[in-house]
Amino acid sequence: MARRILVVDDDKELAEAEQVILEAEGYEVLYAPDGTSALALLAEQPVDLVLLDVNMPNMNGYEVCRRLRQNPATAQVNVLMITALGMIENRVTGLDVGADDYLSKPFEVPEFLARVRAQLRLRELQDRLVEMEKIATIGQMVITLSHEI
Q1: What's the predicted TM-score (pTM) here?
Q2: What b/e sequence results for 121-130 when a residue is b if at least 16 CB atoms lie within 10 Å of its CB, and e otherwise?
Q3: Under 8 Å CB-to-CB from 54, ≥6 apart: which residues?
């Protein structure tokens, strides 16, 4: 199953370029032009990674990231902020509000793809950990039941 990535950016040309690059790598790509649309889309469709711009109308990427982290349904989604705001203060703010990584525009495609792959590897490890915890819980229940019998 292809990993699903949500691109959130009000710059439609850049978002389309990112989509072409990602689809060429075999990813399923969804698009939202702003934070409000992104949150609505995420309420309907789970994704493995959000590529999030900071400077957007109505709701900036920092606020979107905060809301993702506050919502139990989206709190574990990996977030890669991609923005023209390259000052250290901006990167620190992005990471502090919950982004997992930060990439400054303009970026080189190989680095972009490497960061996407890294975030998706983390997502895979997180998914495996959750599955292992479920198996361990079931194992404990079986042990408890066998002692009661």
Answers
A1: 0.84
A2: eebeeeeeee
A3: 60, 61, 62, 81, 83, 85, 90, 94
Distance CA 10, CA 100 (A): 21
Q: Where are the domains of the chain?
A: 4-148
Tens digits of per-residue pLDDT, 71-87?
Answer: 999 999 999 999 887 78
Between helix 109-148 and helix 12-24 the angle, nearest 10°, is 60
The secondary element (H helix, E strand) that includes residue 145 is helix 109-148
Structure tokens that stand for 69 in this block: 């982290």
Q: What is the dihedral of CA 35, 38, 39, 41, to 10 degrees?
A: 160
Which residues lie across from 31 on neighbouring strands? Answer: 7
| CATH 3.40.640.10 applies to domain 4-148 | no
